[in-house]
Amino acid sequence: xxxxxxxxxxxxxxxxxxxxxxxxxxxxxxxxxxxxxxxxxxxxxxxxxxxxxxxxxxxxxxxxxxxxxxxxxxxxxxxxxxxxxxxxxxxxxxxxxxxxxxxxxxxxxxxxxxxxxxxxxxxxxxxxxxxxxxxxxxxxxxxxxxxxxxxxxxxxxxxxxxxxxxxxxxxxxxxxxxxxxxxxxxxxxxxxxxxxxxxxxxxxxxxxxxxxxxxxxxxxxxxxxxxxxxx
Length: 231
Description:
Elements: H1 10-35, H2 69-81, E1 91-92, E2 95-96, H3 101-120, H4 127-132, H5 137-145, H6 149-173, H7 180-203
Antiparallel strand pairs: 1-2
């Protein structure tokens, strides 16, 4: 029996591996795509997030439709999802990468979160409890006994989000310009939290249990259905 009360955690492993694997594919592709294009083909780009800027001829003399199929697909993904600002991006082989440094950090965190969940995570009925299952039960015992797991869940989320939010909004609201290092190290925890949350959301399935009390939680805590009121 697994530590959540079920016979196997095969589904949890698969969910984590899918999230980690897909994220790692994109992460690796962000480096491979510019390396597979002729040197100095893609110069200084500057586009808009959530818009297609480079799918046809433009004043920057670059269209990803002219690239090989693999590189074109990755640059199209970056074109749609990232602002592609040159000053916030790295270059490889003389070609600007398809996403900015922060997005590189986010996808690194997503991959890490997925792989961590594949090793540690288990379905514990709710998204919150499934998310927290990646932490050692020994450390969670006092949290569950004092019923502070919602506070812990929110705290972890804040730790993952706030650094990137502060770095991003101070750039937006002031003349401050962040560095590549800060963009990378604030993107990683955001992606990590997002990867763990996605894995928990896809794995948390109450229908895998016969009843709430079957779920094994840290601190010998159990779920209980509220008593039905008599009509």
